[in-house]
Design goal:
Shape: elongated
Number of domains: 1
Helix content: over 70%
Structural class: mainly alpha
Largest sheet: none
Number of helices: 6
Distance between the termini: 11 Å
Radius of gyration: 19 Å
Strand content: under 5%
Number of strands: 0
């Protein structure tokens, strides 16, 4: 396969990694593209072991992304209801923020949505005082940020793994 087509393919995977930052399923888009590549370019035999590891990284990204928000919220004193509200806020914030800053507004929207959703649920549903509610919301924010960073890093690992298998060797 030519360097040009492999470079375009890796560039597309790089764009997929960036989708993780705006809370879209970029790692799963990578799984779809790499599967299509393996079917369309049979000389690049990726193998079952590659796909098990590759898919495992994608699953791990999802688990860590939401697990980190759960961990952060719980660690900072959030209730289950507020944690769920923070996750709903994450999705809503990403959608609302997406049109801003060339799509990067979704990152800030997701973080702000996690914080606001948790804070509002703590204040309005659980009737917590402002101080503990604010601390729980900070936990949702910290957890969401940590989850986003780790999922992005796993996406970069998926990109590097794919590049090491599809990059043409020789002149």
């Amino acid at each position: 396969m030519s360097f040009f087509f492999v470079s375009l393919f890796l560039l597309a995977l790089g764009v997929c990694v960036l989708l993780n930052l705006i809370t879209l399923p970029g790692n799963w888009a990578m799984v779809a593209l790499v599967t299509a590549w393996a079917l369309l370019v049979p000389e690049n035999s990726l193998g079952v072991t590659f796909f098990i590891f590759f898919g495992g990284l994608a699953v791990m990204g999802e688990v860590v992304e939401f697990g980190a928000q759960l961990w952060g919220a719980k660690r900072y004193g959030s209730s289950k209801v507020s944690t769920i509200a923070g996750m709903i806020g994450t999705i809503a914030g990403a959608i609302v923020g997406a049109p801003f800053l060339l799509g990067l507004g979704a990152v800030f929207g997701a973080l702000l949505g996690a914080w606001a959703g948790c804070l509002l649920a703590e204040l309005l549903i659980r009737r917590q005082p402002y101080g503990p509610a604010l601390r729980a919301a900070q936990g949702a924010f910290v957890g969401r940020f940590l989850g986003m960073v780790i999922k992005f890093g796993l996406g970069m690992a998926m990109l590097a793994l794919t590049a090491s298998h599809v990059w043409p060797t020789g002149a």
